[in-house]
Design brief:
It contains three helices and no strands. It has 77 residues and is an all-alpha fold. The chain is rod-shaped. The termini are far apart.
Length: 77
């Protein structure tokens, strides 16, 4: 017994293809969702900086990081 994988290229033809395959009594047709590959992207320096900044903001909102007062920020300038 052989196993074949059939991919329907056009979404609008999917129902027709399923009906056609089920109509053959010598076929055992099972629908299976395809596993999607997880693509990891290498982050640029700027993206890393932004991710770090968002993490700092989230920590400040959660109360895990103490923020400077406006007076302290102005004095640094």
């Amino acid at each position: 017994m052989e196993t074949y994988i059939v991919k329907v290229k056009k979404k609008e033809k999917q129902a027709f293809a399923e009906e056609l395959l089920h109509s053959f009594d010598f076929l055992d047709v099972k629908k299976q969702a395809l596993k999607k590959k997880v693509v990891t992207k290498k982050l640029t320096r700027r993206e890393k900086e932004l991710a770090h900044a968002f993490k700092e903001v989230q920590e400040a909102m959660d109360g895990k990081r103490k923020l400077k007062t406006l007076k302290e920020v102005i004095n640094e300038l």
